[in-house]
Design a protein that fits this description.
globular, 42% helix, 4-stranded mixed β-sheet, single chain, mainly alpha, 7 helices, Creatine Kinase, Chain A, domain 2, 4 strands
């Protein structure tokens, strides 16, 4: 349902724009000197579940994020957005600011959630959501430890500080290599689809 809604939204916007002589561009970085287009995905567990399950889920996403990046950011243009203009560039999480890959907004009960900020609208939401669910489930089933939060503004941090964090893939070639070598991806993405994304 959520993936259907995401696809329907883009189709409607593009159709209405075209009817009015305009073009709706959902690419990750349509203008060099302006912020890009993000597709921030909010994830949650049932509100009556133990709070630690949310953190296990986040740990699972962080653990597999490099493997999944090709499917969350499938075009060369996608990687021009990372690390600038409020788009993440490092594998981090925090409750405090929007420079993080995963932000946990101040909310309670049914609104308690985590926001993954790296995907862009060129991703296939069916693949993106499926991989995020699998990664989150692995985190919960394995009770993965969540790294310490990066309660700093990464856009203003020194190079020395940033060395402590893993970076998201810097371009699509790196993302393809990581996905092709990932047992997690091979377990959940059919070979035919992986071959298309990896241009094999």
């Amino acid at each position: 349902m959520a993936a259907d809604n995401a696809m329907t939204f883009q189709t409607i916007v593009k159709t209405i724009a075209r009817q009015n002589g305009l073009f709706a561009d959902f690419s990750a970085k349509p203008l060099d000197d302006q912020p890009g287009n993000g597709f921030h995905i909010n994830m949650s567990v049932k509100p009556n579940e133990k709070e630690e399950n949310l953190y296990y889920m986040i740990a699972g996403i962080l653990d597999k994020i490099e493997d999944m990046t090709l499917f969350l950011n499938p075009s060369e243009n996608s990687y021009r957005r990372f690390g600038k203009d409020k788009a993440p560039g490092y594998v981090t999480w925090s409750k405090e600011n929007r420079s993080q890959l995963i932000r946990v907004p101040a909310a309670v009960g049914e609104y308690r959630r985590a926001e993954l900020r790296s995907p862009d609208p060129t991703s296939n939401p069916y693949l993106a959501f499926a991989l995020m669910i699998y990664a989150g489930l692995e985190g919960m089933q394995s009770r993965l430890s969540l790294p310490s939060p990066a309660d700093i503004n990464l856009y203003k941090s020194s190079e020395e500080t940033l060395k402590a964090f893993r970076k998201l893939p810097s371009d699509i070639r790196e993302a393809r290599r990581i996905a092709a070598d990932s047992s997690f991806i091979r377990n959940h993405v059919p070979d035919a689809i992986l071959d298309i994304y990896c241009c094999r």
